[in-house]
Amino acid sequence: MFEKILIANRGEIALRINRACKEMGISTVAVHSTADAEAMHVRLADESVCIGPPSATQSYLNIPQIIAACEITGAEAIHPGYGFLSENARFAEIVAEHGITFIGPRPEHIRLMGDKIAAKQAVKSLGIPTVPGSDGAVGSDRDAQIIAAEIGFPVLVKAAAGGGGRGMKVARKPEDLSFALATARAEAKSAFGDDAIYLEKYLERPRHIEVQVLADSFGKVVHLGERDCSLQRRHQKLWEEAPSPALNEAQRESIGKVVTNALTKLGYLGAGTVEFLFEDGAFYFIEMNTRLQVEHPVSEAITGIDIVREQIRIAAGGAIEFDQSDIVISGHAIECRINAENPFTFQPSPGTITQFHAPGGLGVRFDSGIYSGYRVPPYYDSLIGKLVVHGKNRNECLMRLRRSLDELVVGGIDTTIPLFQQLVRDPDILNGDYHIHWLEHYLAAHGA
Q1: 192 and 72 in one domain?
Q2: What's the CA gap between 334 and 240, in Å, rounded?
């Protein structure tokens, strides 16, 4: 097992990784920008190294500085968390070249799944169902019109190197397609440096279902059930729950087997999440995330398995010590992403937190690095905390979530708490009757 791990991230996920390391008796190194000098993960780590100014490109994305921090502190491994360098295959290769262990999948799998077209082709060959669409990148607008006519409108134009909803446009009829292609290409070029795009059939009311997996170096792959991440705004998840209220046990078992069989054939290593659209009883692959997910705590809540701990054990050469039959789904869990944003306009709201009170009680978890007097910097993602609740069934979980949201106090800045206080009382949410477009329709109807 490792004696010292460097955490190449910030905020709540850096703190989450630090906690797992501490419980395993592993020393930790926090890296930070000058803007995060007073961050909680920096305060609680055994050592800390400043790696640059506030700009992420000069700090959290600065590979030479991160490697130097490892060498200075003697850290044997790097945990990248999520975001930043977590799905950068070249970073994983550089880490290995310096004799340091990257706590994550193999570089070739990160690279494969980072290319949306190659990923779709790969999983299709492994038996995972995919959304009807183009076989690869689309060249001319004329080619796109031919393919779209074969698929049938509406179609979704997507960036091949995309993620987070960027480079993604809907064309509902043929005359919309040229504009969608041009804007998607422009966004993709700006965001990813690659304007390659492809087409998929646009599904009207799908659920976003993802399957959490763990795989060791001895060929064992297990899944921890599914998460429902359908409540989204501009393709950004805000509310996640497990298990999905839309799936029955047979569907859950079937998609779990499909995923584990495919990743066994692929020779995958570490934690990963295979994401699907689910409509009319059918699953369609959309992407695979080769990293820890923001929403991993809901899977931990219903299985009792510490995913970060398993990541570390697997990277150290350990075997998964339980079989698929040992994993029992218990109760229901929901996570709300608490962002430093206006709850209805979603304008970022950095600033000083003047009051803070975390909810508590049975089945309540608040993953966050904030505290009273903490200044939320304007340079990074607006996520400041994750409220995760667990109950013996979905109804108990919803009631516990309602109570916890009413207890949670974050003063001095705008947050998304009021939005969730509304959602947790909405009849569609209470009935589990929603899809990936539901939240945007809800916000439009309420003037947001």
Answers
A1: no
A2: 6
Q: Identify the three-state secondary structure at position 190.
A: helix
The answer to whether the beta carbons of residues 233 and 222 sit under 8 Å apart is no
Enter the pTM of the model: 0.91
Nearest to 8 by CA among 35, 41, 53, 34: 41
Separation of alpha carbons 291 and 311, rounded Å: 10
Q: How many other β-carbons are positioned within 10 Å of the β-carbon of residue 239?
A: 23
- State the Cα–Cα distance between residues 428 and 438, nearest whole angstrom: 9
- Asked if the model's pLDDT at residue 203 lies above 70, the reply is yes
Element (H, E) at 125: helix 116-125
**Neighbour tally for 71: CB within 10 Å:** 11
Active-site residue, from 10, 291, 313, 400: 291
Distance, in Å, from the CA atom of 17 to the CA atom of 408, rounded to the nearest integer, reads 23
Model confidence band, residue 448 (pLDDT cutoffs 50, 70, 90): low
Take residue 295 and report the two structure tokens written for it: 């929403």
Total domains present in the chain? 3
The question of whether 291 is a catalytic residue gets the answer yes
Residue 111, domain member (yes or no): no
130-177 tens-digit pLDDT = 988 898 889 899 999 999 999 999 999 999 887 667 788 999 999 999
Alpha-carbon distance of 355 to 349, in angstroms, equals: 15
* Domain boundaries, position 356: 207-445
In a domain, 230, yes or no: yes
CA distance 426 to 433: 10
**Average pLDDT value for residue range 373-391:** 97
Q: What is the DSSP string of 371-393?
A: -TTPEEPSSS-SEEEEEEEEESS
The CA-atom distances, in angstroms, between 435 and each of 131, 147, 206, 249 are 17, 26, 6, 20
Local confidence band at 46 (pLDDT 50, 70, 90 cut-offs): very high
Task: Please report the pLDDT score of residue 248 as a whole number.
Answer: 96
